[in-house]
Amino acid sequence: MMYNKIAIYSRISVKDYQLENQSIENQKKYIHDYLDNLLEFKAHEREEYTDIGFSGTNENRPEFKRLLNDVKNKKISCIIVKDLSRFMRDYIKIGDYLENIFPFLGVRFISINDKYDNLKESNTALNIDTQFKSLLYDFYVKDISVKLKSALILRRKKGDYLSIPPYGYMKDPKYKHKIIIDPKTYKVVKKIFDLYVNGHSIRSIAKILNEGNVITPSERKKELFNITYNSIKKYGENHKRNVWMSNTVSTILSNENYTGTYVFNRFNNIISNGSKTIQVDMKNWERIYNHHTPIISIEVFLKATEKKTAQKRINKKVDNSGYRKHSVIQGFTKCKNCNHVMAYVQNKKCNSNGQLIIYRYFRCLTCKIKGFSSNLCKVEEIENEVFNLLLNKLNINKNKYLNKKKDNGNTLKKIKELESSISSLFEKYKFGFITKEEFISFKKNINKKIDILNRKINMCSDEYIDLQSLSLEVVEKYIDSILIKDGQVFEVIFK
After folding, report:
1. What is the enclosing helix (H) or strand (E) of 117?
2. Of the ranges 128-132, 135-139, 231-235, which one carries the lowest mean pLDDT score?
3. Which of 10, 28, 34, 12 lies closest to 117, judged by CA?
4. Among 7, 227, 267, 271, which one has the highest count of C-beta atoms within 10 angstroms of its own C-beta?
């Protein structure tokens, strides 16, 4: 087997940067040393993929996704990891990758510490030792997530601040689990609350901060903790700094920690399922009063909260007919430049006859705030183009649909034949003509064929739609997002 490039994958979930850096470098060195000692790998180019701060149960890792994309594009022929837990900590999913996906794509996979190399296995199935280790990893994650959550709750109840401090605060150099006033940014927090309770809107506050080139929360995090956000670099060499957005200002105005009260248990982090987070009911939030130095008074915070609550009630009354009342694709359109959802805006004008004309647009407010073109486009034009692209994608053809329905009879017949062959295989195993392992392997392959045929029937039964126009039901079913660039549809991402 010829190899184009070897992928070296390393991962760690620890949040402390220095520990991360050291552990990641150790993983890389360990793998490089392994490769250097094997003659078959010396002539091949190596590519490093590194994820820092991501759980092994979470598949939504940037470098992990880049690796899989390179594998699909046939840029990678061999993947090597220190051990299976670095690649993934889900027993079922890792089995699918090693038994089905990688063999199908012709990719070699090596786990050094587990002594696993799919090229040297007798078949594509995982050996017993590797399966057992993977299962242990799976149990370990689920067990440790419960223990870790309990330990974190106890520490928080004792007063330890375990999260990254909110904007306006920093970690105490003498004790890292205590927060103190950040002299560089606390006045900005005061200014935000003062402007809001004295009549400014959230959007106007963001504009004021941007005009004053006030350091943003993400920029301050980079300075304090060396945490880099990709969005800062998105707009080219002349626009590297981040900007204040309305939701950033809103988040600060909603943070009770600025009153000196330590508020925790706001979210329920499901560690065993990756990065899934569930909002806890407000009445179950836990608080430690007078925990740290306040930036604003409780009275000011309550005024801001009352104003936000009143504004929500007003917005609810204004928009009482639903979020997508203006267009069925509202919320699906995204700016290609910044990937933010585009806002719906309208302009009302009277023509020469005094008739009121409403012009409807999608506009990227994020780009507008950042000082770029707002990517303005007409709603009707986008809807028409999306409709035509959807028709083309679905390839709606009634005769083709009816012919496929006729094919279902043949498919069902094949399924029955395959199910019958399983019974025949069991008889052969029962009378000693095949081994238990052979029976399990054959049965597994037959079940896969049956699943494929069943999916074919399900797809066919739901394929034909007499589509006359766009509807919310159709859009939600078939469309994931619509990317807009320079006022036109750049790409429709279908589900």
Report:
1. strand 116-117
2. 231-235
3. 34
4. 7
